[in-house]
Specification:
This protein is mostly helical and 280 residues long. It is built from 13 helices and no strands.
């Protein structure tokens, strides 16, 4: 059961299917896969593994934390090495879902403690936040692909003057994915790190190092698409993001900002649900 849910999240070394699945999927399919379906694996841990097998979950929580940290590090390095924009975002999902699993592992190890409660609430909030930022990123990849008919980052460069609105939205969403303070990704990752630190200090320290690598691949993507010398072949061919596309991305951006500034309303709901499951 644990392997099945780990495959669905996915965590290292069960992650290899995800980049290929995203690459072959249409934009809407990738948004649903990243925004909803990956969370089914984490939900399985929360709803079945931890409540039904608490002793076994506590015994093997260290191994689960190890796999989570490997997913964080490997996902970041894998994303940085990609030239396909969509594969970069796909590997970023492995990186971000690693924090979800780390929080779940910490909760399994020290269930009933304040630290476990913080880590667990952070993990569930990270599930929601990743759904927003990843769905937004895959949508923005689809927007540029629909116009350029390529996802090769080496084909872009210097596009910000041509599509400034798209560029601003891409930077905003990328910063939310990065975990910039004031946006949604920061809150959940901070809670996971804060709750996991007393329980898995070494693993959490390595995960924090992984945040630096996360910044590297996010900035690489922004640089390759928006900055640097302008590729002249796109002049007159790339059009700005349109009203229909803005209607899709704007609600996601509003939630990214709202949860970064005021996450309490959602954390209250999450905490009540987790208390019912684990008495936390």
């Amino acid at each position: 059961m644990t392997i099945a849910f780990a495959l669905k999240v996915p965590v290292w070394p069960f992650h290899t299917w995800l980049p290929d699945a995203h690459t072959e999927a249409p934009t809407a399919g990738s948004m649903i896969l990243a925004g909803v379906l990956l969370k089914m694996g984490a939900y399985g841990f929360l709803r079945f593994v931890l409540p039904l097998y608490p002793a076994e979950a506590k015994q093997y929580a260290g191994w689960l934390a190890f796999l989570a940290v490997m997913a964080i590090i490997f996902g970041a390095f894998g994303a940085y090495g990609q030239d396909d924009f969509k594969r970069l975002v796909a590997y970023s999902s492995i990186n971000h879902m690693g924090f979800v699993v780390l929080g779940i592992a910490a909760a399994a190890k020290a269930v009933g403690t304040l630290d476990a409660t913080i880590a667990l609430n952070g993990a569930v909030l990270q599930m929601f936040n990743h759904g927003l930022s990843a769905a937004g990123m895959f949508f923005l990849v689809g927007v540029i692909y629909e116009r350029a008919h390529t996802r090769d980052l080496n084909e872009f460069g210097g596009l910000f003057p041509l599509v400034p609105v798209y560029g601003g939205i891409l930077i905003f969403t990328s910063m939310a994915s990065l975990g910039l303070p004031g946006l949604n990704g920061f809150v959940s990752e901070f809670l996971v790190v804060r709750g996991s630190w007393p329980i898995f200090t070494v693993y959490t320290a390595v995960a924090m190092l992984g945040l630096l690598f996360t910044g590297s691949y996010i900035l690489k993507g922004i640089k390759k698409v928006l900055h640097g010398p302008l590729n002249e072949k796109w002049v007159g061919h790339l059009t700005e993001i349109n009203a229909r596309e803005l209607l899709v991305i704007t609600p996601l951006m509003v939630l990214m900002l709202q949860l970064g500034v005021w996450p309490a309303w959602l954390l209250e709901v999450i905490n009540r649900a987790m208390s019912m499951l684990f008495g936390a």
